[in-house]
Design goal:
The protein is α/β, with parallel strands linked by helices. It folds into two domains: 162 residues, NAD(P)-binding Rossmann-like Domain (Rossmann fold, 3-Layer(aba) Sandwich); 93 residues, ProC C-terminal domain-like (ProC C-terminal domain-like fold, Orthogonal Bundle). It has twelve helices and eight strands. Strands 3-2-1-4-5-6-7-8 form an eight-stranded mixed β-sheet, sandwiched between helices. The longest helix has 22 residues. The relative contact order is 0.10.
Length: 271
């Protein structure tokens, strides 16, 4: 991959992508520049950790870039884009990791026909295991998508989707790690209350989650079949699953995903 990339925002997601790019070596460190609104201490931390360039002059950072990655909070995006849009050129690739914000909204704020690609990674990017959805805006072509895939493949798996599906993606893979962590919290609490040592419970549950994920990934079998294979009639697993069914676990998860999807839609409507 060729070209310079500017990160507007230096939060956890920006750092995860920077880490992936640096460790995979798809761009030289000197072609990566990071800026944020006002936190010079955070920029120094990023610079020391990854040996990339940093600057508080976001206008110059944007001017020098071939790709601009937007990694602000949703409510900061409009102000930030307004401040830099005169420095954005139509040939620059704009990549967004901002939840709930459409490519059309970004294009309107920019006021130019620059290609915009929207992405939804998740926090597992920090360990190179993100599930990242990618959607093209109306000015983005196949080559732009290829570039974005190359960037985000450094932090995990990528999947190209239609932008209309991004709200659902947000509710599933974007927010999904938090649901898994919440499940682990509940399992650990139940194990400790049943008398198990906390450290033992923690280690066993983590490996159980990792192992189940590997089975889903490597076996090629659907989750329903894998579940049935370990659910013996009148056995312990059946007893546990029946409790989940009695308490309408599937409906709870459906409502969880739908609530996150609706919030993503709301963020979009606040544009």
């Amino acid at each position: 991959m060729n070209g310079k990339i500017a990160f507007i925002g230096a939060g956890n997601m920006a750092e995860a992508v920077i880490s992936g790019i640096v460790h995979q070596g798809i761009l030289p460190k000197e072609q990566i520049t990071v800026t944020n609104r006002s936190n010079a201490e955070r920029l120094e931390e990023i610079s020391n950790t990854y040996q990339v360039r940093t600057s508080m002059d976001k206008e110059q950072v944007v001017q020098e870039a071939d790709m601009v990655l937007l990694a602000t909070k949703p409510y900061d995006l409009e102000e930030m884009l307004t401040s830099i849009r005169s420095h954005i050129q139509p040939e620059q690739l704009i990549i967004s990791v901002v939840a709930g914000i459409s490519t059309d909204f970004i294009s309107r704020l920019i006021g130019k026909e620059a290609p915009v690609v929207r992405t939804m990674p998740n926090t597992s990017a920090a360990v190179g295991a993100s599930a990242t959805a990618i959607a093209a805006g109306k000015y983005a072509g196949a080559e732009h998508i290829r570039q974005v895939e190359a960037l985000f493949n450094t932090i995990g798996l990528t999947q190209v989707v239609e932008e209309v599906d991004m709200h659902t993606v947000t509710g599933i893979s974007g927010s999904g790690p938090a649901y898994i962590y919440y499940l682990v919290e509940a399992m650990e609490k139940a194990a400790v209350e049943a008398g198990l040592d906390p450290e033992t419970a923690h280690e066993l549950i983590i490996q159980t989650v990792v192992g189940a994920g590997e089975m889903l990934k490597d076996s090629g079998e659907p989750a329903a079949l894998l579940r049935k294979k370990i659910t013996s009639t009148k056995g312990t697993t059946e007893a546990g699953v029946q409790s989940l069914e009695k308490n309408d676990f599937a409906a709870i998860i459906k409502d969880c995903v739908e609530s996150a999807r609706k919030r993503s839609v709301e963020l979009g409507k606040e544009e």
